[in-house]
Design a protein that fits this description.
The chain is of the alpha+beta class and 232 residues long. It is built from six helices and eleven strands. The strands form two sheets. A nine-stranded antiparallel β-sheet has the order 3-11-1-2-10-7-9-5-4. Strand 4 and strand 5 form a beta hairpin.
């Protein structure tokens, strides 16, 4: 028996160390309007790693979706929104650093993506904590043609992305200005329930919408990878 243990123990240790890790990290946002699960993109590693760090710290738990615009997006991530009094202007809080912009031609503002908010800094670097989830709407080719001339400064929306904006929707006017770094994979109903809420002149909901964010564990991430066929 001792010889068998001696033989199999190293094999067990090696197999444990080299067990296939999940390909993607997922997070869960929990609200009174339901929950959603978001996959963080590996193509934007600085934003992915920063968000994982911020979520682990717990700094965003019980902060608010402080800005909502129907058919556009819902925004959160301001640490100053925690326990904020009604009517107080929010959206300026965050940690004392920015995340370098990570624009990727394959990542765009389709309905359901997670993207980083930012101020008007010339490098378009992202807020350390603030984020938004795109609700969006459908766009016609004529509308996208106009956006290319006005908002996108000559950037041409690829046909593959136009097809998504026509059929699924999004916010194409934000492409190449704000970093997209994840997408909702389940539970988008949460966004559709929050976006239409009544809001004040600053687009802050009249009824506070707090949330908690948690990282899914490795087993859950591997299950989602398999379900979404992202880790064959």
């Amino acid at each position: 028996m001792k010889k068998l243990l001696t033989l199999f123990l190293p094999i067990f240790i090696v197999s444990t160390i080299f067990a296939k890790a999940p390909k993607n990290q997922y997070i869960r946002i929990k609200t009174s309007y339901g929950n959603c699960i978001i996959r963080l993109y590996n193509e934007t590693p600085k934003h992915r790693d920063n968000f994982i760090k911020v979520v682990k710290s717990g700094i965003l738990n019980q902060t608010l979706f402080h800005r909502i615009i129907l058919n556009f997006m819902i925004q959160g991530g301001d640490p100053d929104s925690k326990n904020a009094k009604p009517g107080i202007e929010l959206g300026n809080g965050g940690l004392k650093y920015k995340v370098d912009a990570e624009f990727n031609d394959s990542l765009f503002h389709k309905r359901g993506v997670l993207a980083a908010a930012r101020d008007d800094n010339p490098k378009k670097a992202s807020s350390s904590t603030q984020f938004y989830i795109v609700e969006g709407r459908r766009y016609t080719d004529a509308e996208m043609d106009n956006l290319e001339k006005t908002r996108l400064k000559g950037f041409k929306i690829p046909e593959s992305q136009r097809a998504v904006y026509r059929s699924v929707g999004g916010t194409p006017q934000l492409d190449h200005s704000y970093t997209v770094f994840g997408e909702v994979v389940t539970g988008f109903d949460m966004v559709d329930l929050i976006a239409p809420l009544k809001a004040d002149v600053r687009n802050r909901p009249l009824q506070d919408v707090p949330y908690t964010i948690e990282l899914l564990n490795k087993r859950e991430c591997k299950q989602l990878d398999k379900l979404l066929l992202l880790n064959p």
